[in-house]
Amino acid sequence: MPTAPWTDSKTPVGPPTSENPTVRFLVYAAVVTGAWSGVLSLVVYGVARLAGVDFVATRGGDAVPEPVRWVAIVLVPLAGALVFALLASLTRGWPHAGRITWWAGTLLAVASLWIPLDQPATVPWSTRCVLAAMHVITWFLVVPQIARIVGDSEPGRSVERPEPQ
Predict the structure, then answer these.
(1) Are 86 and 23 in contact (CB under 8 A)?
(2) Of the candidates 43, 73, 50, the residue with the CA atom closest to the CA atom of residue 135
(3) How far out from the chain centre does Cα 105 lie?
(4) Residue-level pLDDT, tens digit, the chain, 165 residues
């Protein structure tokens, strides 16, 4: 039984070559997934604040912890998703682009966990754990989606379809 060229596609029907993901489409997907990640992180932030978690953390080389603002809770996942999508766009058309993107995103997410977990002793562990959970939420929503989109640009995944007459 012959197989169609799109059978390895992450989507049920492989996209035509003309519909391979563009940078604009990846940025759009990043805005959507990053915004949802920001909203869910804001919900986690609100629940944690109601539970009495004191959201203070250091930024960069600061020695004194400062309160974490709710705006940062929304904007950081969005910015991270946009940067990741732009980096992932560099792999479009590569063999195994989806896997490369997924693993690179996973490694970046694991590395980003260092930021909340490596806070000074003055930052409570409750804050560190909730901030780490927000990083996991962002990974869960952003990385698989961007990797799936980039994966459809791999050689042999999309097919050239004739124009309708």
Answers:
(1) yes
(2) 73
(3) 7
(4) 455 555 566 555 555 656 678 889 999 999 999 999 999 999 999 999 999 998 888 876 667 788 889 999 999 999 999 999 999 999 988 899 899 999 999 999 999 999 888 888 888 999 999 999 999 999 999 999 999 999 888 777 665 555 555
Q: Return the ∠ at Cα 149 (arms to 75 and 10), rounded to 5°.
A: 135
Q: How far apart are CA 149 and CA 52, in angstroms?
A: 39
Length of the chain: 165
Residues 6+ apart with CB under 8 A from 17: 158, 159, 160, 161
User: What Rg value do the Cα atoms of the chain yield, rounded?
Assistant: 19
Question: What residue spans define the domains of the chain?
Answer: 21-151
**CA pair distance 77, 134, nearest whole angstrom:** 8
The label of the residue with tokens 């020695």 reads 63
Helix (H) or strand (E) holding 139: helix 125-151
**Cα separation, 49 vs 70, whole angstroms:** 11
Q: Give the torsion sign (CA, 113, 71, 140, 91).
A: negative
